[in-house]
Amino acid sequence: MSRDDQLFTLWGKLNDRQKDNFLKWMKAFDVEKTYQKTSGDIFNDDFFDIFGDRLITHHFSSTQALTKTLFEHAFNDSLNESGVISSLAESRTNPGHDITIDSIKVALKTEAAKNISKSYIHVSKWMELGKGEWILELLLERFLEHLENYERIFTLRYFKISEYKFSYQLVEIPKSLLLEAKNAKLEIMSGSKQSPKPGYGYVLDENENKKFSLYFDGGAERKLQIKHLNLEHCIVHGVWDFILPPP
To answer: How far, in whole angstroms, is CA 10 from its chain's centroid?
Structure first.
């Protein structure tokens, strides 16, 4: 039975409500959209089409950005469907890589804040810092050890431009850039009322300009954030732009 025959047969089995939902879902693929491959060595043209279709399928039933877990699965499925060998890490609480692509361990991040910057990346939770000693030098060492668990890092950034217009951006954060944190200038925020007191690790270029900051958050989660990471130091692999029709 051909694909068209299968669709016709299935259509006849749906009730009116299911047919209405099916039509809405099909119309999702007819939205105004642009998929741009801008750089990179892993992804082929098929991946950008497949992943873009998965993004629009998600937004057929949700007004929220793709969560990290949904990103991981959509990313992995799109890679495999496009002919790239990929598999998710077996443990979802793995303190390192999230996915393996052609035998390369990769960490995945997402960013979807309402006030997201076009020029600077912010990762609100890079890793948990645990309940050990709160000494910035030791925390920095833990971050550098964490980097040993993966070779590449990709973050999916979501921009809501208007009620019906949104965009996704796939960016690679070079591991070599993050490794520059070994020379970070550490500063404890002594005036903070938080306990333990938070601190910063500033990564500067040769002209003392800030490349990015490590923020050791001493709050309830005790986590490491990456702040003010200039997009100019990263690789934008692709952009997906969508304009949805009004309901």
So the answer is: 36
Question: DSSP state, 227?
Answer: E
Q: Judge residue 132's burial from the number of C-beta atoms within 10 Å of its C-beta, 0-12 exposed, 13-18 middle, 19 or more buried.
A: exposed
Of 53, 50, 47, nearest to 33 by C-alpha is 53
Q: What's the CA gap between 136 and 188, in Å, rounded?
A: 8
What SS3 state is found at 37?
A: strand
Distance (Å, rounded) from C-alpha 227 to C-alpha 200?
10
pLDDT tens sequence across 101-139? 999 999 999 999 999 999 999 999 999 998 888 999 999
Whether residue 236 contacts residue 169, with contact meaning beta carbons closer than 8 Å, is answered with: yes
Q: How do residues 21-68 score in pLDDT, each as one tens digit? A: 888 777 777 778 888 887 768 899 999 999 999 998 898 878 889 999
Nearest to 236 by CA among 155, 163, 141, 182: 155
Spatial distance between the Cα atoms of 154 and 237, rounded to a whole number of angstroms: 9
Contact 161, 118 (CB under 8 A): no
DSSP string, 76-140: HHHHHHTT--EEE-S-TT-SS-SEEETTEEEEEEEE--TT--SSEEEEEEEEE-TTS---HHHHH
